[in-house]
Write a structure and sequence with these properties.
Length: about 300
Amino acid sequence: MAIIEVEGLVKRYGEHTAVDGVSFDVEEGEIFGILGPNGAGKTTTVECIEGLRTPDGGRISVAGLHPRDDRVRELLGAQLQESEQPDKLTVGEAMELYSSFYREPADWRELLETLDLTAKTGAQFRRLSGGQKQRLSIALALVGNPRVAVLDELTTGLDPQARRDAWGLIEAIRDRGVTILMVTHFMEEAERLCDRLAVIDAGRLVALDTPAGLVARVDDRQRIRFRPSAPLDPAVLAALPEVHDVQRAGAQLVVTGTGNLLLAVTTTLAAAQITAAELRVEQASLDDAFVALTGRPIPS
């Protein structure tokens, strides 16, 4: 059941159309990602959903309500792309302040414990690390007990370990029953976390599917590279229904196919008492899918 509905969304800034007819639904309980390069219209789209911007066209509903309806504030928690607090405000003061905005807030002390911030309750915002500030922004987004949490470029600027820690937190939030709408330009992040993805480029929706579905649109074939431990006639593998092609690359064989290719190949090798050394499985990635859909990669 859709908790967010976006239909034909249009947003202009003067002569520039930032969002041009975007439509998608977000199902309750899923992690839904909006993927695209900087300037694609991702943040403008979610800010319209949050009621922070007024669309120039189209329709948006959040749990059947208009985004500017006061009741949406109780349903939706947002972590903004740039979320700063006064330098001297402590973590505890921020949580207590935000809690006062809601009729039935969550236990903010429990949230801090969940997000590993209890030890920083008395710390001023300016004293927090980048990762701690991001975790605080998540806590503030959740303190109202929302049904939906909007996370905009949550892990930008984090080191690889802090980014992976944040991914674990996002999964934990979903496990609490919260629907996640997240904006990202990190392929690995989108592939790991999102149940479905809306790919937006130059203000337009270019694809909507699961990460695996987007990849399959590009190329559903797999490639297996290995060095056989004993001489092997490539025709033995070529005869398998899962195999499309077998090529030699020096001492290696490169087998291309679909379906359960790895099992078919390894079973055949085992029957011939041949070991696959240096085995590597290759397949199209979400990066490949994005390039195929938009004609260019997302800049790092």
